[in-house]
Amino acid sequence: MKPRLSKKRNTAMTLFEVGVCIAIVMILLMFVLPMLENSHRRVSKLGCVNNLKQIGLAYRIWEGDNGDINPMGISVTTGGSMEMVATGDVVQTFMVMSNELSTPKILVCPEDKTRSSAINFDALANSNISYFVGLDATNDLNPQRILSGDANFELAGVPVKSGLRSFWTNDPVTWSATRHAGAGNIGFADASVEATDSSRLRDLLQQTGLATNRFAIP
């Protein structure tokens, strides 16, 4: 029996049809990629807020075991970080709370691309910390005092360097664009956390009841 020959032709796509398909894919990508990027930002933002909540809880647990005072209010000689943090050192404060923090990974903001997590607390350095320490939140009696938060500050458009920094209530402090699309998160003495823009950041500095707010910046 002779094989039956099909009368159908095998046709390939024309260049015009290929071009149309590519154009459709490109248009779809223009819509999908921003959605994926926004989704990633939301996840990173939530991760940072969660880190600061865990840090705030670690402070509350630590102070509960140390006369209701945070490490910044207790001398190094008795297990705190008072003298060290007064020089701008943030490492000592987190070191003394290592048991309460459990892991140094929570000290790095997911959007902070300049720092990486320490392998353990013995190896902890400024390069492994994204968050500042508020020197004036030595206890939770003043819940509006600022305890911690993102350290991506700018003052009059200039990035704030590491060390001890005092912000007056009328200082033109803003968030830099290096994290959270120019925003940041603030942790308070009562362990609550608030996501803020630059305007809200300045409001919070004024609401602490202090003439200056002292932060140790990593």
Mean of all residue-level pLDDT scores: 88
> Uncertain spans, ≥5 residues at pLDDT below 50?
36-44
Spell out the helices and strands N to C: HHHHEEEEEEEEHE
How far from one another are the termini?
86 Å
The major pleated sheet works out as: 6 strands, antiparallel
Q: What is the gyration radius calculated from CA atoms? A: 25 Å
How would you sum up this structure, described in words?
By secondary structure, the protein is an alpha+beta fold. The longest helix has 50 residues. A hairpin with a 2-residue loop joins strand 3 and strand 4. The strands form two sheets. Strands 5-9-1-2-7-8 form a six-stranded antiparallel β-sheet, with helices on both faces. A three-stranded antiparallel β-sheet has the order 4-3-6.
Strand-helix topology:
Elements: H1 15-64, H2 82-85, H3 91-96, H4 98-101, E1 131-134, E2 146-150, E3 153-155, E4 158-159, E5 163-168, E6 173-175, E7 184-188, E8 193-196, H5 198-206, E9 212-217
Antiparallel strand pairs: 1-2, 1-9, 2-7, 3-4, 3-6, 5-9, 7-8
Can I get a quick summary?
With 218 residues, the chain is an alpha+beta fold. It has five helices and nine strands. The chain has one domain (20-217).
Structural descriptors:
about 220 residues, alpha+beta, six-stranded antiparallel sheet, three-stranded antiparallel sheet, 5 helices, 9 strands, elongated
